[in-house]
Design a protein that fits this description.
CATH class of one domain: Alpha Beta
Bound molecules: adenosine-5'-diphosphate, magnesium ion
Low-confidence stretches: 5-12, 258-271
Pfam families: ABC_tran, BCA_ABC_TP_C
Order of helices and strands: EEEHEEHEHHHHEHEHEEHHH
CATH architecture of one domain: 3-Layer(aba) Sandwich
InterPro entries: ABC_AA/LPS_Transport (IPR051120), ABC_transporter-like_ATP-bd (IPR003439), ABC_transptr_urea_ATP-bd_UrtD (IPR017781), BCA_ABC_TP_C (IPR032823), P-loop_NTPase (IPR027417)
GO cellular component, one term: plasma membrane
Protein name: Urea ABC transporter ATP-binding protein
Helix content: 25-40%
Mean pLDDT: 86
Keywords: ATP-binding, Nucleotide-binding, Transport
Length: 271
């Protein structure tokens, strides 16, 4: 089980963590997320899985202020619920969406520059930067996009766009990253590279990855939380979660804990 941060406890002074307690989201009386508890410590690569409609995206939306929620969601003791989207982003919570949202006409560097400018004055944003900020150099390096920095984002491969989005969160100094299906539509090679990227950035950040791809989860998750019907169904190591009869039941009919989306099902059927 994931250790709980205790008072004066095991998370350490400079450690970050995300602590969600009793979080619920209703849409016109329909409970999309019900009483979710979730603790993710810095250095953990937590996978959040569950069938379509389980409430995974809604949970991320609630943490990032896009939908109203009740309960509590704290980053290292600071309450996020009730704050505005931009305030939450400034507290270091970064998220990606299921579809990549980079500025296609702008170069990789310009995309990162804009991301780095978030929260700065209009003046500093408009001023031409003669040199590349060290944080941007670092993000280019980390995401493996250095050689592509002057290419328009629109010509990047699908995987590279997702890496650019992650790079944009890095230059914003996000220390909690919530990634919604980052490897959807990626080639096997891109998945492998993305997994390695997540390991690199995850060692000193809190990373939650929503994922459908069970092979990807098995390769890279350090811990797993399973959502179903808006509730936490199971939590633990990959092995523990896979062995849980409750988890097997919600994935019944899908080969070997394969996800509900047909593309993944096909892949795991011959695994
Ligand atoms: N804005 C909304 N209004 C009404 N219902 C919604 C809204 N967003 C999501 N839902 C519903 O909430 C449930 C959870 O959706 P979602 O969080 O997108 O699931 P997942 O990401 O796990 O596939 C689904 O039944 C979905 O139809
Ligand atoms: Mg979703």
């Amino acid at each position: 089980m994931t250790p709980e941060p205790k008072a004066g406890g095991n998370a350490g002074m400079d450690s970050d963590y995300l602590e969600i307690r009793g979080l619920s989201v209703s849409f016109d009386g329909f409970k999309a997320v019900t009483d979710v508890d979730l603790t993710v410590l810095q250095g953990d690569l937590r996978f959040l899985i569950g069938p379509n409609g389980a409430g995974k995206t809604t949970l991320i939306d609630a943490i990032t202020g896009l939908v109203p929620a009740t309960g509590s969601a704290q980053k290292a003791g600071t309450e996020l619920l009730g704050k505005k989207v931009h305030q939450i982003a400034r507290l270091g919570i970064g998220r990606t969406f299921q579809t990549a949202s980079v500025f296609e006409q702008l170069t990789v560097l310009q995309n990162l520059d804009i991301a780095a400018g978030a929260g700065r004055s209009a003046w500093s944003l408009l001023r031409t930067r003669k040199s590349v900020l060290p944080s941007i150099e670092e993000a280019l390096e980390t995401t493996g996009l250095t050689a592509l920095r002057d290419k328009p984002a629109g010509v990047l491969a699908h995987g590279q766009k997702q890496w650019l989005e992650i790079g944009m969160l890095l230059v914003q100094n996000a220390s909690v990253l919530l990634l919604d299906e980052p490897v959807a539509g990626m080639s096997a090679e891109e998945r492998e590279e993305t997994g390695n990227l997540l390991r690199r950035i995850g060692s000193d950040r809190v990373v939650v990855v929503v994922e459908h791809d069970m092979d990807f989860m098995r390769s890279f998750a350090t811990s797993v939380t399973v959502l179903a019907g808006g509730k936490v169904l199971s939590e633990g190591s990959v092995e523990q979660v896979q062995a849980d009869p409750k988890v097997q039941e919600v994935y019944l009919g899908t080969a070997n804990l394969a996800a509900t989306d047909p593309a993944t099902k096909r892949e795991s059927a011959d695994a």
